[in-house]
Amino acid sequence: MKLEHIGIAVKDIEASNELFGTLFNSPHYKTEGVESEGVLTSFFAVGESKIELLQATNEDSAIHKFIEKKGEGIHHLAFEVVDIDFELDRLTKEGFVLIHQTPKDGADNKRIAFLHPKSTNSVLVELCQEKA
Ligand code: ZN
User: Fold this and answer.
1) What is the Å distance from ligand 1's center to 8 Cα?
2) What is the DSSP code (8-state) at residue 72?
3) pTM exceeding the 0.90 threshold for the entire prediction
4) Rounded to an integer, what distance in angstroms lies between the CA atom of residue 120 and that of residue 122?
5) Which of 62, 72, 86, 121 has fewest C-beta within 10 Å?
6) Gap from CA of 93 to ligand 1 centroid (Å)
7) Is 54:67 a contact under the CB 8 Å cutoff?
């Protein structure tokens, strides 16, 4: 596995694009909505990993609920795997609790699935695999 990206929940993605663009001295390279999740995302390349900013687009969005509860900040860590179906099966057998039993479409041309933070020391973990 490699750390593919870190997801950060933000209230105002435009303002945060400015902020992180200044921090990295390099602008975000794409913006993408994921309608099924009610989020707008933007991506920054940082070395071999990425930073994904996430802004809720409706009140049912998990990002809206996260910010209500905890405020802005680090939301999840995403690890890239070679075979996401195999890994979900393996982790289920190891006793991890999955939020998604089967992978779904995520941003950035990926198949993704989240593990429940109750089985990962309260860290929300995303597994992702580049779509062929
Ligand atoms: Zn992510």
Assistant:
1) 9
2) S
3) yes
4) 5
5) 121
6) 24
7) no
